[in-house]
Design brief:
The protein is an all-alpha fold and about 450 residues long. It has one domain: MFS general substrate transporter like domains (Growth Hormone, Chain: A), CATH 1.20.1250. Helices cover about 80% and strands about 0% of the residues. Helix 9 runs parallel beside helix 14, helix 11 runs antiparallel to helix 12 and helix 13 runs parallel beside helix 16. The protein is globular, with a radius of gyration of 21 Å.
């Protein structure tokens, strides 16, 4: 059977993450700013909201994972979820930016309800993008290529949001940011639905072990026990997303208040395009160096970039700070380009060690780290701002500027250091040839593409 996934299918798969990012990158980059500076919520309350929502979200992931493993439709296990949840996800995204005036308590309650629902539906529609990957091909290098295409198109969505959102808000809102954000999200949500349906139509599940039978939760747990690479990636997701989720929203604060160059925010966000270059290079370097070493290299590059950002701010040199952003983004692309491909490898590893293949549960449970990291990163960032006495739309006290600097520079750097330490213990690259050989022999002919 042909092992190659066609380019039409690769692109259709990647468009699912473009769709996700059109909505969720907007949430990641701008929702904290929207809540504090547009909707008028207390910054400390926003931090608590982000953390509580992510704690809830951390548990909905495994639930969706079990549901995926137990799904038996004519479309497969993961694929039908793109069809079922695309419209509900888009609708809740629009409601999250509707900004009704319910008074302080009512507005906070509305934010809780819509933000939590948005996170739950995001888990339901984004998790299948990860769980379906090991079912698209049994070839590890092919999955790396497919995952890289996914991350390239994910970054296309993220970069578009980074560059276009604030200009769209200004143009559509005509001075009214509440209206501008809502209309912008309506556009993003409509496009996202179309992309999700393209993913549903064109992506296929080929690797169907034991007739793609339902996997009970208790049996799926066996694929996690002793799966050391999976545990490492769970912790990696936690710290990577703490750094990303703290740094992303901090961009608008850092360049507005610390450097006094609010006009550069679209440009700075647009420099995420450097992640694309790294992701494009991922299949080549991972084949030559191994996935572990590529992630190592990316984290070190990211640390260097963060230090240069700090030096640029200390010298009040915008060009130096921008250079640091470029270097940091380039390094981060290596980790993002490989993370989901490596999760797919741990699903094979779990099957190899336990005899149980549970892509839904392992993908969902590994995303626990990423989701909890996103919640913790957002919460820490908001709490740090509150601790620093941040006041919206005013000249900031030195303590507030220091808080913004911590979120933008130091928290991502610390996260990179922890990931490097974790990957000292990642050994799956060495086991992979024997694992693949054993699985092929165990599955027999005709299984996998």
């Amino acid at each position: 059977m042909n092992k190659q996934v066609s380019w039409k299918e690769r692109i259709s798969y990647g468009l699912g993450d473009t769709a996700s990012n059109l909505i969720f990158q907007t949430v990641t980059l701008y929702l904290m700013f929207y809540y504090t500076d547009v909707y008028g919520l207390n910054v400390a309350a926003v931090g608590t909201l982000f953390l509580l929502a992510r704690i809830i979200d951390a548990f909905d992931g495994p639930i969706f994972g079990v549901l995926i493993d137990r799904t038996t439709s004519k479309y497969g296990k993961s694929r039908p979820w793109f069809l079922w949840l695309s419209i509900p996800f888009a609708a809740i995204a629009i409601l999250a930016f509707l900004s009704p005036d319910f008074g302080d308590t009512g507005k906070l309650a509305y934010a809780y309800i819509t933000y939590i629902l948005l996170n739950v539906l995001y888990a339901g529609i984004n998790l299948p993008l990860t769980s379906i990957l090991p079912s698209m091909s049994s070839d590890s290098q092919e999955r790396t290529v497919v995952s890289s295409v996914r991350m390239i198109l994910a970054q296309v969505g993220a970069i578009f949001v980074s560059i276009a959102t604030l200009p769209l808000v200004d143009a559509l809102g005509k001075g009214d940011q509440k209206q501008g954000f809502m209309l912008t999200m309506m556009i993003y949500a409509g496009v996202a639905v179309v992309f999700f349906l393209i993913t549903f139509k064109n992506v296929r599940e080929r690797v169907q072990v034991e007739g793609n039978r339902p996997v009970p939760f208790k049996e799926g747990i066996k694929a996690i026990k002793g799966n050391t690479p999976w545990w490492i990636l769970l912790a990696t997701g936690l710290f990577v997303f703490i750094g990303v989720t703290a740094k992303g929203p901090a961009t608008i604060y850092y360049f507005k208040y610390n450097l006094g160059r609010e006009d550069l925010i679209p440009l700075v966000n647009g420099l995420n395009v450097l992640m694309l270059l790294a992701i494009i290079l991922v299949p080549y370097f991972s084949k030559k160096l191994g996935k572990r070493n590529v992630v190592f290299t990316g984290m070190i590059i990211g640390i260097v970039g963060q230090v240069i950002i700090y030096l640029g701010a200390q010298m009040m040199s915008v060009p130096l700070a921008l250079t640091g952003v470029i270097i940091s983004n380039f390094g981060g692309g290596f980790a993002f380009g490989l993370l989901f491909a490596m999760i797919a490898d741990t699903i094979d590893y779990g099957e190899w060690k336990s005899g149980v293949r549970a892509p839904g549960l392992l993908s969902a449970a590994s995303s626990f780290g990423a989701k909890f990291g996103m919640g913790l990163g957002g919460a820490i960032a908001a709490w740090v701002l509150a601790l620093g006495k941040y006041v919206p739309n005013q000249a900031q006290a030195p303590s507030a500027l220091l808080a913004i600097e911590f979120n933008f520079v130091w928290l991502p750097l610390i996260a990179n250091v922890v990931v490097i330490l974790l990957f000292l213990f990642y050994k799956l690259d060495k086991d992979e040839p024997q694992m693949i050989s054993d699985l092929k022999a165990r599955r027999g002919p005709g299984i996998g593409a």
